[in-house]
Fold each of these.
Amino acid sequence: MKKLTLVIMAAGMGSRFGGLKQIEPVGPNGEIIADYSVYDAIRTGFSKVIFIIRKENLEYFKNNICNKFADKIKVEYAFQELDMIPNDVTLPGGREKMLGTGHALYCAADKIDGDFVLINADDFYGLDSYKIAAEFFENSQNSTNYLTVNYPFAVTASKNGAVKRGVVFTDKDNYVTNNLECEISNASGKLIASALNSSLEFEISEYQPVTVNFFGLRKSFLDILASEFNKFIHGNIDLKSEFLLPEVIREAIQEGKIKMQAKTSKSKWLGITYKEDLAYLKNNIKVLIEKGEYPENLWD
């Protein structure tokens, strides 16, 4: 079986949640969402996990999170900080917001040595998603063939407000033709997707495939990423500018540099956008445990 790395983005603060939702306990014994992600990765054959975090959180992750499974999978850390940019760039004064998901992966590039899956720390993707990824990399020999694991929008919606999702469009062979980062809200019973980087708005159905940053990528993609980040960081950066990974992927697809196969997970997706989502997530994990899909004490 191919060696696979799980890369977990855990450096961002949850502005809508109101805190560091990546370390919010959701399991019966204090497990966080990333515990379940690592657990699923281990049982589908992944050999390494890289956490992208802030330097100030390193000791917490080592002593309170990763110590539970450090003997079961190789664990490494990468740091996303605002000063991890070229020396000839100065960010606007007062900038506190991280530079986005693309920058997070850029900061972890030197830790990645092969095929990898990139995920959010605050998204629960379910076992089937990791099975899909493991099977994809085991069977795909084409170095320009990539993967996105998606969900119907209704599965990823929050009852508590608008959410940001990547709206995925595919051809007849289920290869991605476009992936638009959007904020999706319910307006008078209609689901309206508003593109983050343009004025485009359009209606989607509840079955529309969306991505919540579960991507199967190749090491060679990091060269594409570095080139695009260099263009971004030397452009007009303001207090809110973000270097978004899905946008880099979209451009690479449209320029013919990569092909990305779209697959839909059968697993239940769970996530935290708002504080009010937390109780729902905890209850659903309890149900999964009662069904026998996860042990009550994950690392016992």
Note: Confidence is low (pLDDT under 50) at residues 14-18.
Amino acid sequence: MNFLAHLYLSGDISDIKIGNFIADGVRGKQSKTFSTQIQQGILLHRAIDTFTDAHTCVDTSIARLQSTQGRFAPVVVDIFYDHFLAKNWQTYHKQPLAEYAQEFYTFVRTYWEILPQRVREVVFYMEKQDWLYNYASIKGMTKAFEGMSKRTKFASNMLTAPQDLEKDYLLFEEDFTTFFPQLVDFSKKKLEEILQDTPQEKPQEIL
């Protein structure tokens, strides 16, 4: 899953959300330098990724892209799924997506001093281009893929990913719609499990 889904699945505990957000920028024992709950957020992120990688709906989406996206097919699917979450945001969350996104950009800045450098770079572009909100449109995703294509070290076809999505739009949306509620249930249970060592803080319901 990509940024929007990971944030949504974190609940409302601030350090858990930050840990989940920065997890891809944290390597090995570096995680031990963060607070307990940030470490727990990192664990949640990795559990979500493991569940996602093993799911048959995700495998189906990836297979549909193999001929055009090759090694980058899983990355492209992550963004496709954030698109469907953003497009249907009101189904999953009470707060308007535009407001949710702006609140997150302000919130993450309060943790600036502890963010890994590569995460700071992501935040800069995320806020500047309003990724979380703009994933809801094909145009917004196109800009995201353009940026990723420029930053990747290897040749890719990510510039054509929006066309791949439009070609099989309903099939990708069906994969997401089947998969995501299962991921939400898994994440709630996993968050409860992770937080069992800190009984004074209870997991917040994912709205």
Note: The longest helix spans residues 169-194.
Amino acid sequence: MVRDEMKVGVAGCLGYTGFELVKLLDKHPNITLEVLTARTPNTVSADPRFSLQLKQGYNPTISTLEDADFSTCELVFFATPHGVCMEHAKKLLNEGITVIDLSADFRLGDPKLFETWYGMKHSAPELLDEAVYGLPELNRECLAGTKLIAMPGCYPTSVILGVLPLIETKCLINTLIADCKSGVSGAGRSATSSTIYGEVAENFKAYAVHGHRHLPEIKQEIIGIVNKSKKQVDSDNFDIQFTPHLLPMFRGLYSSIYIELIEDIKQDALTELYKARYASEPFVKILPKGVLPETRFVRESNEVHLYVNKFEKSSYLNILVAEDNLIKGAAGQAVQVMNLVFGFAETIGLK
């Protein structure tokens, strides 16, 4: 049933992702922000971002998650650190409240894999089978009416959308190398020695070169897509490599994906394959020949800009993807998913 108005809560409203989410929901015509939480109780007077950027006259009180009363909400977003949502999801679901989690708590289907990569025991493994991976371009048909949604990471969003047309009907990929870069906001708002201005400015570096926690997520989803295409793949032999880099800027994400094909495909056919796959997708744009993605053109938008280039006389191709890591990589995509779950127009609140 489509609701004309819906009350929602946001846990973690003061983080970079959480506040982007609050700003989007504040402008959504069908949404009332009912409950906001942060690690430290706060009010508008203590954080000027609310009075400066939210609708005039809106005066929210920010409580702790433990003190929050979500009983009047139909939906709660968790823009919280890993490990928080899993502690609260079951209670909310039992009360009939939908949960959209922007952390990694429900992204990985194997709790042992989660524990290996995130260094904590999963406290709600019984909910993993209920969670739907919230990439609309991949799982749109599964989202309507879903009660627990695991939002993708920012890097996996760009990589999966970059290769989806190549593997959805039949696997055309032999090797996938994802060379990805993100602004410092991807590390969250908490200050660390590696993300302060003096370390980031006028600098560029790779990190997590021995394994990033988004790698098992990328592998899980891509192998799942391949297997759905009825071409069974041994995940141990399917070569996927991923290296992230830190850009000296606040927001934005850029992925250069290198694909070794198992069969030849011409540039024109490749372009048409991508255009056909994403023709009805409101937020994925396939750029024309010679127009390459740039982070400035997707800044503060829910769009992904994508360009496919086949190297001449080579079995390799290059896929370039630009997104805003805080919007399509996080908050905007969560609003897009909310629209689909509750039957609102998919683009409402995101144009």
Note: The CA atoms of residues 4 and 222 lie 36 Å apart.
